[in-house]
């Protein structure tokens, strides 16, 4: 195997490609045979990524990019961490697959490491292949535990692209399923574009909770199995809830015997500067779903962490769910390797410190210099810049402008994450202050260029 050798680099620099095929072959094969997610297929020109290391990736010509997208906010530990790669390789030599019904040391250790980070009493993990099926199974557990059918979730949310998960999703991706039964949606706090005419976080919190209480009443509390929320809605814009909101949701849920499922698929395992995003909020969920950061996606994995009362429902009653690859040995080895390494190398602490000391202050300085930035939000390595055409009206910038922002970043060797009118700043948790400085310089140049054209 041809393994690329790392070297110090700067964005846009060139690295010798590791590939044996001529540049362009990957794109040719992709255009001929790969059907892509969330896209009209005809106009796609995907960037080829041939390799990666730490916070960088490179294409098949060897051109380097600083990865400030983390590959869909996923690769918390950075690309190709040698300890995780070694853990997967070691497991591959021992045992590559077993059915979910067996006991296995790597699987047990992965579950132990996950539950050690969860609140006391949340001692069991059901493993899935990713985030959507984690939410799917959490909703199923809630329905079976309560004997109720309905799930409430936020309009500003993404929960995955499978049956119930996409119906629980609130954004445009739910629309083909608009006639699905058993789900209702509500508005969650978003002070910058308040649905409640609020002007302070306290007002936004109180009114969002009043609204939820009303939705629960109107939907019929006795029909509701669970409220499903992203702890911090991610794809919808890094919308950290105001203090007291999640505790208020918990209170409404408890009043009616409704379970609370927190979706930590995007925010779990270090992204916000905490092991779980809910660690920064005064709330205890009944079920937690996770994926992505648990092993940085080195091998697909996800799961549900289950509180004791829900787990006990299935002590003498069959849980009628399972997946052939639940607790797959390679995915479990990647979890063990990732979580042990993150603890040893204090990677969550790094995310928190770099966010507080470099990313946050750097983005706020950019906002002072660039009228196109309407708001800076976030913590850890989980930030969004809300880009506006007009500071007064807060009208979002046009899609063509966000397209120019994306292209401007790529031209300067930075892989960005953009969504609607926002630039999300989501590097791996291992990002260094020097890499943040490089990214801030790119954003500064790109925003200057874009503002000149407005
Ligand atoms: N939940 C959240 C909050 C997500 O951000 C995502 C994916 O981005 C999912 C669920 C779905 O995860 P997956 O794509 O692994 O199915």
TrEMBL record:
Gene Ontology MF: a single term: transaminase activity
Lineage: superkingdom: Bacteria
Similarity remark: Belongs to the class-III pyridoxal-phosphate-dependent aminotransferase family.
Protein name, UniProt field: Aspartate aminotransferase family protein
Keywords associated with the record: Aminotransferase, Pyridoxal phosphate, Transferase
Keyword Transferase belongs to the record: yes
Region feature (Disordered): 1-24
GO cellular component, one term: cytosol
Pfam family, one: Aminotran_3
Organism: Sanguibacter biliveldensis
Tagged with keyword Zinc: no
InterPro entries named in the record: Aminotrans_3, Aminotrans_3_PPA_site, PyrdxlP-dep_Trfase, PyrdxlP-dep_Trfase_major, PyrdxlP-dep_Trfase_small
């Amino acid at each position: 195997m041809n393994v690329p050798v790392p070297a110090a680099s700067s964005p846009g620099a060139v690295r010798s490609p590791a590939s044996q095929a001529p540049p362009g072959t990957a794109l040719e094969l992709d255009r001929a045979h790969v059907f892509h997610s969330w896209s009209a297929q005809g106009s796609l020109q995907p960037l080829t990524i041939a390799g990666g290391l730490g916070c960088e990736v490179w294409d098949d010509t060897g051109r380097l990019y600083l990865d400030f997208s983390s590959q869909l906010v996923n690769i918390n530990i950075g690309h190709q961490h040698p300890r995780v790669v070694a853990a997967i390789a070691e497991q591959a030599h021992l045992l590559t697959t077993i059915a979910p019904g067996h006991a296995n040391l790597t699987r047990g250790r992965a579950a132990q490491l996950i539950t050690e980070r969860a609140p006391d009493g949340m001692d069991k993990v059901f493993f899935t292949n990713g985030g959507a099926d984690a939410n799917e199974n959490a909703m199923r557990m809630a329905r079976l535990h309560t004997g109720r059918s309905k799930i409430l979730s936020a309009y500003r949310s993404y929960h995955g692209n499978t049956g119930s998960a996409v119906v629980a999703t609130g954004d445009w991706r739910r629309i083909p399923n608009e006639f699905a039964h058993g789900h209702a949606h509500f508005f969650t706090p978003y002070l910058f574009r308040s649905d409640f005419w609020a002007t302070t976080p306290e007002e936004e919190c109180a009114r969002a909770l009043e609204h939820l209480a009303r939705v629960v009443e109107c939907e019929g509390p006795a029909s509701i199995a669970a409220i499903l929320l992203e702890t911090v809605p991610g794809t919808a814009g890094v919308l950290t809830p105001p203090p007291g909101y999640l505790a208020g949701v918990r209170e409404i849920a408890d009043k009616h015997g409704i379970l609370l499922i927190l979706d930590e698929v995007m925010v779990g395992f270090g992204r916000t500067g905490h092991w779980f995003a809910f660690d920064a909020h005064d709330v205890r969920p009944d079920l937690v779903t996770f994926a992505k950061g648990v092993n940085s996606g080195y091998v697909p994995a996800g799961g549900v962490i289950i509180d004791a009362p829900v787990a006990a429902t299935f002590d003498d009653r069959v849980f009628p769910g399972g997946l052939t690859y639940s607790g797959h040995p390679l995915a479990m080895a990647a979890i063990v390797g990732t979580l042990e390494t993150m603890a040893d190398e204090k990677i969550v602490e790094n995310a928190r410190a770099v966010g507080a000391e470099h990313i946050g202050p750097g983005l706020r300085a950019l906002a002072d210099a660039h009228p196109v930035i309407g708001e800076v939000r976030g913590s850890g390595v989980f930030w969004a810049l809300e880009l506006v055409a007009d500071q007064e009206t807060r009208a979002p910038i046009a899609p063509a402008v966000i397209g120019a922002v994306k292209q401007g970043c790529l031209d300067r060797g930075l892989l960005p994450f953009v969504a609607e009118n926002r630039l999300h700043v989501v590097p791996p948790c291992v990002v260094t202050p020097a890499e943040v400085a490089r990214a801030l310089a790119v954003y500064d140049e790109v925003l200057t260029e874009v503002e000149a054209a407005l």
